[in-house]
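Input.
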Amino acid sequence: MTDPTRPAFRPEPDAASGREACSVRPQAEGEQDVRSVRLQADDQPRLVNRAAARSGMYRTLLEIASYRHLLRNLVLKELKLKYRGSVLGFVWSLGNPLLMIAVYTIAFTYILRLRTPGFVFYVMLGILAWTFFTNAISMSAGAIVDNGALLRAVWFPRAILPAATVFFNLAQYLLTIVVFLPIMMAIYGVRPAAPMLAYPVFLVLQTGLTIGIALVAAVGTAYYRDVRHFIDVALPMLFWVTPIVYELSLLSGRVHRVIALMPMSPYVSAYHDVFYYTRWPSAGTWAAATIYAAASLAIGLTLMARVQDRLTERV
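Output.
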């Protein structure tokens, strides 16, 4: 007969975990036994140390791809904010290229008496590509430091911010080129030709170059604020050593080699080739454009992968 004064549950020490396990003793004959229950340490929530598992270049690419919805939303937000409350909206984006083309037309055609056929079309191709490049780099320099509150609030791939700035400027460039290119081709009698199929390829390569430089500029500005000011000074100087308002073929010797090595030279030369001369770019132009884009992306992504978990401390 069961002693009513004897406790039904008695704690027993567990030698493995140092805790006490509760053994259930049957209170009456025929009752089902209950097994001992132990709390395991692995059942506790664990924290993941991201700094210990720092990602590489390819991992950063995968992270950007997985956050593509955020990238898209940031680009759309910038486009809406830019034209919000504006009566003319996108038309204002055409003002700067129009003004620059008018100034260069007056300067080179009427003041310097330069009679190159279709010179305005030649200049426009370079200016629009250059505007996309410079605006993207200048804006990307502050992409990290100007979003410190967002960085501290939630984790996401830090490369998204400068990349979104580049794609925002790419969207503006495409909207502008869709308007200007058919008009200028019609005015100067340029017919569609097979070499123009190379244009999307070079645009993709230029975008890769721009993203790589934008990542470096964003990281550099986060660590050294002088980088942003250096970029503002360097880009106007770089304009004149890029074959935008003159033909690269007119240069010779060492000057030609130096100008050809500038980062935007192969892309601008390719646009001149496919639209102005309606010819395929040379093998050297293809090689330089591909190497510059691949090297820029590799450097930018690798740098961002190494420091992105420490950027919050720098803003």
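Residues 177 and 183 are 10 Å apart (CA to CA).
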